[in-house]
Design brief:
This protein is α/β, with parallel strands linked by helices. 43% of the residues lie in helices and 11% in strands. The strands form eight sheets. Strands 20-21-22-19-23-24-25 form a seven-stranded mixed sheet, with helices on both faces. A six-stranded mixed sheet has the order 3-4-1-8-9-10, with helices on both faces. Helix 9 crosses helix 11.
C-alpha cells in the first residue's frame, strides 16, 4: 500500500482558456469585458497583485515582445489549487484576446490570420519562449518581472470559460455582445470541450443583462453560469473549479453560489479581517507620532496584518493606520484641552479671586487683567504660533501651563462666566451663613440639646433654604449646639462646685441613694444653669455622678479642672525648682513617684522565693512587663532567702525601693523565717527619716509543701498562717480560700490582685505624703497647709514663687512633691515650718487624719465657686486651728466696679471675723507678695501649737483604743487610701487589701511580746501598758503618727469596760474575714440576718466626747460617742447591761472635757446645708430603701428579746445617754446559727466569676446554674410582680451561690429560696463574668446596626451581628432572651414588659464602661437593643417572621397571629431543632403553646 501511494503522486493539470468579446473599440466598446481581471484575480488573488487596468492597445514593439510574443493570447501562468474535495490540482490559464495597434487601431498582424471566434476556439496553442503575463507595466520591462515561460511552448486546452460582461459598458450594446457570445459558443461547442459561462462585473451588473445571460445559458443544454466580480473577488475561484469539475468527471459536482450570497460571505470575511487588523494597530500604535514604515515592519509577521493586506491590499491597510493616527492625535489634543479647561477655574481663583475686581469686566477685559497679574506666567504660556492645537505645543508634556490663546475660545468664556457666578453665589452663601449663625446666637428658642426638628421653624426662612444646603446648615447648627452644650456643661460644673457645701454635707458615697440624689435635684432645680441642660438629662446626671465621684474620691484625675489641677501644677513647679537638670538624670527609684513600675520583694526560704519569682516572670512579657487592667507595668522582682540584715538580702537598696512583699511559707520553719525577717527589717529602719518598710504592704501565702517530714497538716499550717497574718495585719492566701491547687504556688488571678493592691497603696502614698515619724515631728515645728482652688483665674506659680524664692525655703525630705520647708523667725526663735501647698480636694483628705497646725486658704474674689469650696472646707475644721483667709482680686478698681468681687470680699472678711481668723487680700496684678504678710498668722499658730497637738493626740488615741468603726470603712475618712479601694458590691464593703501597719517607734520599753509586729494584749494589763505609754507621750507633748492604728484585739474579761457597739462588730468582722476564720462559737446569728449589716455606719466625729478618768495612773482613756442618730437608723443593738449605769457611775467618776467644736458652729455663714447632714442614712438607695423602714418599725416596737433596744426617755440628758450607750457591755453570748461562718470575702468560687467557657460544654451549652434558676423561675415566678426589678436579699443570694458551688445538684425548690433571690443570683452570675455576655467588640457592631432607620433593615442587621457571637455566648444569650421573652408575655400579671426587662437586664448583659461620656449617653441605645432582642426573639433565634411593634394594630387575623409568632400553635415542620439545645422544661406553662418543633429549641 505504501509503494502504490508513493507511485500515485501525479497532480492533475488542466489547461483553461478564458474567452469572450474582444476586438476594436467599435466592437467591444471603450473597455473590455473583464477577462484579464478575472484571470489576474484567479492567478494572483492578493489585493496588492491585482490590477484593474489591462490594455489591449499595444505598440508594435510590445506586441512583439516575449510576453505577447506576436500572439493574440496571454499566458497567465500556472496555478495550484485545492478544490472542494481537498484534492490539489494545477491549472494553466490562457486568455484569448485581440491586441490593437496603437498606430492604426486595427488588430496586430500575427502568424494566425483567423478571426477571433475561430482563433478563440483553438484547443492547441503553441508559442515558443512565451513568458507569463503580470500586468501592462511588464510590457517593455520584462527584465524587471519574474520571467516564467509557458511550459513546453504549447498547451492543449481542456475547457473554456465564456465571459459575458453584465455591466453597463460604454458604447457597447448588450444584445450585440450576446449575439457575439452566441456565435462564439457555437464555435466552442464544436471542440467538445466543457464550457462554463462566467458573468463578469456583477458588482456593477444590470438585472436585465443578468437575466438575459441566464436565459441564453438555459437555451444551451448543460451550460452552467457563475456570477463573478473580479474587483470584489467574488466567485472567481468558483468559476474555475466548476470548469475543472466538468473536465474531470470523477470530481464531485460543484455547488453554484449566487453572487449576492457569495458577496455577503466575502464582505464578512473582509470585515472580520479589518476588525482584527484595527485591533492590531490599536495595540501596537499608542502615539500619534508613529509612522507607517516602522509600524508596518512591526506588523509584518502578524496574521491579522497579512490577512487584511491579502484581502484589501497595503494601501487600504495604510489608510486605516493613518485614520488611527489621526484619531490618536485628536484624542490627545482633547485631553490637553480638558486639562487646560480644568485648570482654568483654578487659575481664575488664584489670579482674580476678588469679586469686586472683576464683577463689571467682560471676558476680553478680564484677559487683559490677567496679563497684569504677577503670577500670570505661572498659569499661562503665550505661544508664538496659534492656534495652540496646531503647533508642537501639544507634544510639550512638561509644560502644563495653559496656552493663553485658549482664552479666545467659547468654553473659556463660559468658564469665566461660571467663575463670576460662583463668586457671587459664595458671597451670597457667606452672607446667609453669617445670618444663620446670628439667628442661632440671638434666638431665645435655641437651647442646649434642642433637636433640629424643634428648632427648624424658629430659624429657617426661604433664603436659608435657597442658599444653604441641608448639610451646611445642619453642620452650623451642630457646631452651635456643641458650643452652647459645652458652655452649658462648663457653667453647670461651676454650679456644682458653687454648691460644694451641699455635696460635702450629704456625705455622699460611691453609690448615692435616691433620696440624696433627690435633694441635689431639689436644691439645684431652680438654678438657670441646671435648667439649661433640661433636654440633656443624661449628660446632666452624668456630670452630677462624676462630681459625686470627685467628692467621694478626689484625685488629680477626677478633678473637674484636670489636667490643670493645682496639685499637678504644684508638683511640677516644686520638682522643677529643686531638682537641677544634672540631678534629673541621676534620679533613682527611691525618689521616682512613677507608679508604672512595681518593685516586689519575695521572701521565702528553701528556694520558695526563687520558684515563685520564676513563675511570675513566666507570666511577664519578654521585657519584664506585666499587664494589669489593660495597662503595662514594669515589674522588678527581688527574691530573698537569707539573713535580711546582710546588705545582699536587704529589702531596700540604693536602686530598689520595695512597694510590697510576698511572704511564702510551707512549714513552721519557713513561717518563723518570714516573721523574724520582717522584724529584723523593720528594726533596721527605726529612727530613719525614710522609714518606708514600716508601711510596706505584706501578703502571706501558703505554698506547696514539699514533703511532710514533721507531720504538719495543711489545717495546722493554715491556722498558724492566719494567726501570723492577723498579727502582721496583712492579707493571707491559702489553698482553700484562694482556690489554688495544692500542687502549685499561686495562680495568675491572685498575682494580679496582689499587684493591684500594691498599685493602690503606691498611689495613695504618692498623692499625699504619709505622716512623718516622731523624729520628723521633732525636726519640724509647724505644719501649715496652703489651700488653692483648682480653676481659679490666677496662676499658682504667682502664689508659690514668693515662697520658693525665699532664702529660707528648702526641699521637703518627706518624699512629697507638694511641700517645702521654711525656716522663719517667729517671735524670738526660728521655726521650721513644713508648708504643704495643696488643692482643696486634697486638703479634704488630710483635714481629719493629719496633724496640721494651721491653714492658709486662698480664694478668688471673682469666682463664687472658689469661696463656696472654702466654706465647705472650713465647716469641718476644728475651731482651735488658726485660719488665714486670702482673697485674690484684680485690683482696687475692679473691686469698686465689680459687685461680685465686692460681695465676696465682704463675705470673706465676715467669715474671718466670726471664726477669729485673719483676712487679707492680694491683687492678682501684683501677686509677688512676701512671706512677711503671713507672720501674724504664724504667731497665732505658734501660740496654739500645744493645744492643737494635744487635741490631735486625743483624737488618734481614742480611735486607736476604741473598737468602733475603722476609718478605712468611712467613705470620707481622712486619707485618700480609703477612697482608692472602691468596693465592687454595694453591700460588701471591705477594708483595703493592704492595711498599712505602722510600728510605733516610741515604744522601746515594750516587752518582747509587745515588740512583735502586732501587739496581742491580754486583759487589763496589756491595755494599761499601752495607755500608760500613750499618756507618757502626751505629757511629753510629742505627737503620735497621724495614721490611725489597725484595730487591736483585746480579750475582754468580766468586769472590763465593754465598749463594743454593733457598728464596730460589723467592721471588726469584715476586717477579720479577709485574713482569718472566725471560730465557730464566735459566730453571731444576727450578724447575717439582714444585708443592712454589711453597710458601714458613718462616723460623726463632732459628737465625740472625751472623758479622762480620775485614776489616770491606769492609763485608760474612754472614748464616748453619741450614737443617737445611728440608733434611729437601726444600727444599734442594745443589751441587758446597756442601761446598767448605776454601777458604772459608782465605780468611776468621770470628768467630762468638751472636745473643740468645728468652725461651722461658730460661723453663721458656714454649714448652710447642715440640715441635710443627718437627714439620710449612709449607703445606696438599693441597700437601705426596704431595710430602713423595717428597722425603724422594729425600733418602735420596744423590747424584743435579749438584743432589744430600750428606748431612751425623751427628757433624758443627751450627753448622759451617750455615755451610757458607749459604756454598755455585751454579757450574753450570741447563739450560733447553723449557716456556715463564711463570708464572700473569704469564699473563692470555682464556678462564679470564671470565664463562660469553663462552665459550659458542647453537650451542655447552658451553665447548669442558669438552667436551674430559669427552670425555677418559670415554674414558680412568672406571675411575680416586678420579677428582676425587685432586688433579692443579698445574703440569701450569696448563700444560694455558695451552696450551689458545693453541690451542683442543688434543688432550689427544696431550699425554699424566694423568686427574687433566685432572679438576683442569676443576674449576679452574669455580672461576675470576667467579660460580659454580649462581647464588647460586638457591642460596637450592635450600636452601628441600631442606627439604621428602616426597622426591617435594622432587625436584619442586628441578626447578622448576632451570628458573629462566640458560640458559647450565642447559646447562652439565646437561652436568656427566650426566657425574658416568656416573662414579658406575662406582663399583665408581673408588670414586666420587654422594655422594663431590658432596663433591668441591659447593664448586666453588656456592662458598658461608664467612665466615658459616650457610654453614659448611649445607655438608651443599649437598652433599646436588648428590648428589640426580647421583643423579636422568635425572629432572631427561631427564624420566625418579624412581629409587629407592641403598639401596632393588626388589620387581619393573620396580622394578629403575626404579632405573637412565638406563641402560635400551628406546627412548622420545616424548622429542625438545634442539636445542642437543652431539654425543654416540663414546668413551663408556656410550653404547650409552643409548636412541637420549637419546643426543642425553647429550652426555658
Amino acid at each position: 500500500m505504501m509503494m502504490a501511494r508513493k507511485q500515485d503522486v501525479r497532480i492533475p493539470t488542466y489547461n483553461i482558456s478564458v474567452v469572450g468579446l474582444s476586438g476594436t473599440e467599435k466592437e467591444k466598446g471603450q473597455c473590455g469585458i473583464g477577462k484579464s481581471c478575472l484571470c489576474n484575480r484567479f492567478v494572483r488573488p492578493s489585493a496588492d497583485e491585482f490590477h484593474l487596468d489591462h490594455t489591449s492597445v499595444l505598440s508594435t514593439s510590445d506586441f512583439g515582445g516575449r510576453v505577447v510574443n506576436n500572439d493574440h493570447f496571454l499566458y497567465w501562468g500556472e496555478v495550484s489549487r485545492s478544490l472542494e474535495d481537498c484534492v490539489e490540482c494545477k491549472m494553466h490559464i490562457v486568455e484569448q484576446t485581440e491586441f490593437i495597434d496603437d498606430q492604426t487601431f486595427q488588430p496586430h498582424r500575427s502568424t494566425a490570420l483567423q478571426p477571433y471566434i475561430k482563433r478563440a476556439a483553438a484547443t492547441k496553442l503553441a508559442s515558443a519562449e512565451k513568458l507569463m503575463y503580470f500586468c501592462t507595466d511588464q510590457l517593455g520591462l520584462e527584465q524587471d518581472f519574474e520571467q516564467k515561460q509557458m511550459s513546453d511552448g504549447k498547451l492543449l486546452i481542456d475547457g473554456f470559460l465564456l465571459g459575458i460582461d453584465v455591466s453597463r459598458g460604454m458604447n457597447r450594446n448588450f444584445d450585440d455582445q450576446l449575439k457575439f457570445v452566441s456565435n462564439l459558443y457555437n464555435q466552442l461547442a464544436k471542440t467538445k470541450k466543457p464550457i462554463v459561462v462566467v458573468l463578469t462585473k456583477c458588482d456593477e451588473g444590470v438585472e436585465r443583462y443578468i437575466r438575459d445571460a441566464h436565459t441564453f445559458a438555459l437555451s444551451k443544454k448543460n451550460l452552467q453560469v457563475v456570477e463573478t466580480s473580479a474587483r470584489s473577488n467574488v466567485n472567481v475561484d468558483l468559476a474555475f473549479s466548476t470548469l475543472v469539475q466538468l473536465i474531470d468527471k470523477s470530481r464531485g459536482k460543484t455547488k453554484i453560489i449566487p453572487y449576492f450570497e457569495a458577496l455577503k460571505q466575502q464582505s464578512q470575511q473582509i470585515a472580520t479581517a479589518k476588525d482584527k487588523y484595527e485591533w492590531l494597530v490599536s495595540r501596537i500604535v499608542k502615539n500619534h507620532n508613529e509612522n507607517w514604515l516602522s509600524v508596518s515592519r512591526k506588523m509584518q509577521a502578524s496574521p491579522e496584518y497579512q490577512d487584511y493586506v491579502y484581502l484589501e491590499g497595503t494601501q487600504k491597510a495604510r489608510k486605516l493606520f493613518l485614520q488611527h493616527i489621526h484619531r490618536l492625535k485628536h484624542e490627545h489634543i482633547e485631553r490637553r484641552r480638558k486639562l487646560y479647561l480644568a485648570a482654568l477655574p483654578l487659575a481664575f481663583e488664584a489670579l482674580i479671586p476678588n469679586l469686586d475686581e472683576i464683577d463689571h469686566l467682560s471676558c476680553i477685559k478680564a484677559k487683559k487683567l490677567l496679563e497684569t497679574k504677577p503670577e500670570f506666567l505661572k498659569w499661562f504660556v503665550v505661544l508664538e504660533e496659534t492656534p495652540w492645537d496646531a503647533t508642537s505645543h501639544i507634544d510639550n508634556m512638561e509644560n502644563e501651563r495653559i496656552p493663553f490663546d485658549l482664552m479666545d475660545t467659547v468654553p473659556a468664556e463660559q468658564l469665566y462666566e461660571a467663575h463670576l457666578e460662583k463668586l457671587r453665589n459664595e458671597r451670597k452663601r457667606a452672607e446667609m451663613r453669617r445670618a444663620f449663625k446670628e439667628n442661632l446666637e440671638t434666638s431665645p428658642f435655641i437651647t442646649p440639646g434642642k433637636p433640629w426638628e424643634e428648632a427648624r421653624s424658629f430659624i429657617m426662612n426661604e433664603d436659608f433654604y435657597q442658599w444653604l444646603e441641608e448639610s451646611v446648615y445642619m453642620d452650623i447648627y451642630g457646631k452651635h449646639q456643641k458650643q452652647i452644650i459645652d458652655r452649658a456643661k462648663e457653667e453647670f460644673q461651676e454650679l456644682l462646685v458653687e454648691y460644694s457645701e451641699l455635696f460635702y454635707e450629704l456625705e455622699l458615697d460611691a453609690k448615692p441613694s435616691k433620696e440624696k440624689m433627690g435633694v441635689i435635684q431639689d436644691v439645684l432645680g431652680e438654678e438657670q444653669r441646671f435648667k439649661a441642660l433640661q433636654k440633656l438629662q443624661a449628660e446632666r446626671d452624668a456630670l452630677i455622678l462624676k462630681h459625686i465621684h470627685f467628692v467621694y474620691h478626689p484625685t488629680k484625675e477626677t478633678c473637674p479642672s484636670c489636667p490643670a489641677c493645682v496639685d499637678a501644677k504644684i508638683e511640677h513647679l516644686i520638682s522643677s525648682w529643686f531638682i537641677r537638670p544634672s540631678d534629673r538624670n541621676q534620679k533613682n527609684s527611691l525618689s521616682d513617684p512613677n507608679i508604672d513600675r512595681i518593685n516586689l520583694v519575695i521572701l521565702g526560704k528553701d528556694g520558695l522565693a526563687r520558684e515563685l519569682a520564676n513563675e511570675i516572670r513566666a507570666l511577664c512579657t519578654n521585657d519584664d512587663k506585666y499587664v494589669i487592667d489593660g495597662k503595662m507595668y514594669e515589674l522588678s522582682l527581688r527574691p530573698i532567702e537569707g539573713n535580711v540584715r546582710l546588705p545582699v538580702n536587704s529589702f531596700q537598696t540604693p536602686t530598689f525601693q520595695p512597694h510590697g512583699c510576698l511572704c511564702l511559707y510551707n512549714s513552721k520553719e519557713s513561717l518563723s523565717y518570714v516573721v523574724e525577717s520582717i522584724e529584723k527589717s523593720r528594726e533596721s529602719t527605726l529612727g530613719r527619716r525614710d522609714n518606708h518598710l514600716v508601711h510596706l504592704p505584706l501578703t502571706l501565702i501558703l505554698v506547696n509543701k514539699r514533703g511532710d517530714t514533721s507531720g504538719e497538716t495543711l489545717h495546722s499550717l493554715i491556722q498558724q498562717g492566719q494567726q501570723i497574718a492577723s498579727k502582721l495585719q496583712c492579707v493571707f492566701v491559702d489553698p482553700a480560700s484562694a482556690g489554688i491547687s495544692y500542687g502549685r504556688n499561686i495562680n495568675e488571678k491572685h498575682i494580679s490582685q496582689v499587684l493591684k493592691g500594691l498599685l493602690d497603696s503606691k498611689r495613695n502614698l504618692n498623692l499625699v505624703s504619709s505622716t512623718a515619724s516622731i523624729k520628723d515631728l521633732a525636726d519640724v515645728d509647724l505644719r501649715i497647709v496652703m489651700c488653692l482652688m483648682c480653676g481659679d483665674p490666677f496662676s499658682a506659680d504667682d502664689i508659690l514663687l514668693p515662697v520658693l524664692q525665699s532664702q529660707t525655703c528648702k526641699s521637703s525630705h518627706c518624699g512629697s512633691n507638694n511641700s517645702v520647708l521654711l525656716e522663719l523667725p517667729i517671735g524670738l526663735h526660728k521655726k521650721r515650718i513644713e508648708l504643704s501647698i495643696l488643692s482643696y480636694h486634697s486638703s479634704f483628705s488630710i483635714r481629719k487624719s493629719r496633724l496640721v497646725h494651721g491653714y492658709i486658704v486662698f480664694y478668688s474674689a471673682k469666682r463664687k465657686a472658689s469661696l463656696a469650696m472654702l466654706r465647705a472646707f472650713l465647716c469641718e475644721v476644728q475651731d482651735i486651728i488658726p485660719i488665714q483667709l486670702v482673697a485674690l482680686t484684680d485690683g482696687a478698681i475692679d473691686v469698686l466696679d465689680n459687685d461680685l468681687s465686692r460681695e465676696q470680699l465682704t463675705e470673706g472678711e465676715e467669715i474671718a471675723q466670726e471664726i477669729d481668723g485673719r483676712f487679707t487680700s492680694i491683687p492678682c496684678s501684683q501677686p509677688q507678695h512676701k512671706l512677711e504678710l503671713f507672720h501674724p498668722f504664724f504667731k497665732d499658730v505658734v501660740e496654739k501649737k500645744n493645744i492643737i497637738e494635744a487635741t490631735h493626740m486625743y483624737d488618734n488615741a481614742a480611735e486607736a483604743c476604741s473598737t468602733t468603726e475603722e476609718v478605712f470603712n468611712s467613705p470620707r475618712a481622712g486619707s485618700p487610701l480609703c477612697n482608692s479601694n472602691l468596693q465592687d458590691s454595694e453591700e460588701d464593703i471591705e477594708p483595703p487589701s493592704y492595711s498599712l501597719f505602722r510600728e510605733d517607734t516610741s515604744l522601746p520599753s515594750l516587752s518582747k511580746d509587745h515588740s512583735k509586729l502586732s501587739m496581742e494584749l491580754e486583759g487589763n494589763d496589756g491595755l494599761s501598758l499601752f495607755m500608760s505609754n500613750f499618756e507618757s507621750k502626751l505629757n511629753n507633748k510629742v505627737p503620735p503618727p497621724v495614721k490611725p492604728k489597725p484595730p487591736v484585739h483585746f480579750e475582754i474579761t468580766k468586769g472590763d469596760l465593754s465598749y463594743l457597739e454593733q457598728g464596730h462588730r460589723d467592721g471588726q468582722r469584715k476586717s477579720m474575714s479577709s485574713s482569718t476564720w472566725l471560730p465557730p462559737d464566735g459566730f453571731d446569728p444576727s450578724d447575717y440576718a439582714e444585708p443592712m449589716d454589711a453597710v458601714v455606719k458613718p462616723r460623726n466625729e463632732e459628737e465625740n466626747i472625751y472623758s479622762v478618768p480620775h485614776d489616770s495612773t491606769q492609763g485608760k482613756i474612754i472614748t464616748i460617742r453619741n450614737i443617737n442618730k445611728a440608733q434611729s437608723n437601726g444600727s444599734g443593738n442594745g443589751s441587758d447591761s446597756e442601761m446598767d449605769t448605776s454601777s458604772l457611775e459608782r465605780g468611776r467618776k468621770v470628768s467630762i472635757v468638751s472636745k473643740p467644736v468645728l468652725y461651722r458652729t461658730r460661723c453663721s455663714r458656714l454649714g448652710r446645708f447642715a440640715s441635710y447632714r443627718t437627714s439620710f442614712s449612709v449607703g445606696s438607695d438599693d441597700e437601705l430603701g426596704p431595710i430602713r423602714k423595717k428597722e425603724e418599725d422594729q425600733a418602735s416596737q420596744g423590747y424584743k428579746g435579749d438584743n432589744a433596744v430600750i428606748p431612751y426617755e425623751t427628757d433624758e440628758d443627751p450627753r448622759r445617754r451617750n455615755i451610757l450607750r458607749s459604756l454598755r457591755r455585751n454579757t450574753k453570748k450570741p447563739k450560733p446559727k447553723p449557716r456556715p461562718s463564711i463570708t464572700k470575702a473569704t469564699w473563692e468560687s470555682n464556678y462564679f466569676g470564671v470565664p463562660l467557657t469553663t462552665v459550659v460544654t458542647p453537650e451542655k451549652p447552658i451553665p447548669v446554674f442558669i438552667e436551674r434558676c430559669i427552670e425555677y423561675i418559670e415554674a414558680t415566678g412568672l406571675s411575680t410582680e416586678g420579677i428582676y426589678r425587685v432586688s433579692g436579699n443579698k445574703s440569701e443570694m450569696e448563700s444560694l451561690q455558695r451552696q450551689f458551688d458545693q453541690d451542683h445538684n442543688l434543688d432550689l425548690a427544696e431550699k425554699d429560696f424566694t423568686v427574687n433571690t433566685v432572679a438576683g443570683a442569676m443576674k449576679s452570675f452574669f455580672s461576675e463574668l470576667p467579660d460580659p455576655l454580649v462581647p464588647y467588640n460586638m457591642q460596637v457592631d450592635l450600636v452601628e446596626a441600631h442606627k439604621i432607620n428602616d426597622r426591617e433593615q435594622k432587625l436584619h442587621a442586628l441578626k447578622e451581628v448576632l451570628k458573629k457571637f462566640p458560640k458559647e455566648n450565642h447559646e447562652v444569650f439565646k437561652y436568656v432572651i427566650s426566657h425574658l421573652n416568656k416573662v414579658s408575655h406575662n406582663n399583665k400579671v408581673n408588670l414586666m414588659t420587654s422594655e422594663n426587662l431590658s432596663i433591668c437586664f441591659w447593664p448586666t448583659l453588656m456592662r458598658p464602661d461608664f467612665s466615658t461620656m459616650d457610654a453614659l449617653t448611649a445607655t438608651r441605645t443599649y437598652q433599646t437593643i436588648i428590648e428589640l432582642f426580647i421583643q423579636q426573639c422568635p425572629f432572631f433565634f427561631y427564624n420566625r417572621p418579624i412581629s409587629e411593634p407592641p403598639g401596632a394594630t393588626p388589620s387581619s387575623p393573620s396580622a394578629v397571629a403575626s404579632t405573637v409568632p412565638f406563641l402560635t400553635s400551628t406546627p412548622i415542620t420545616s424548622q429542625p431543632s438545634p442539636p445542642q439545645s437543652p431539654p425543654p422544661t416540663p414546668q413551663s406553662p408556656m410550653q404547650p403553646l409552643l409548636p412541637s418543633q420549637l419546643q426543642a429549641e425553647h429550652t426555658l
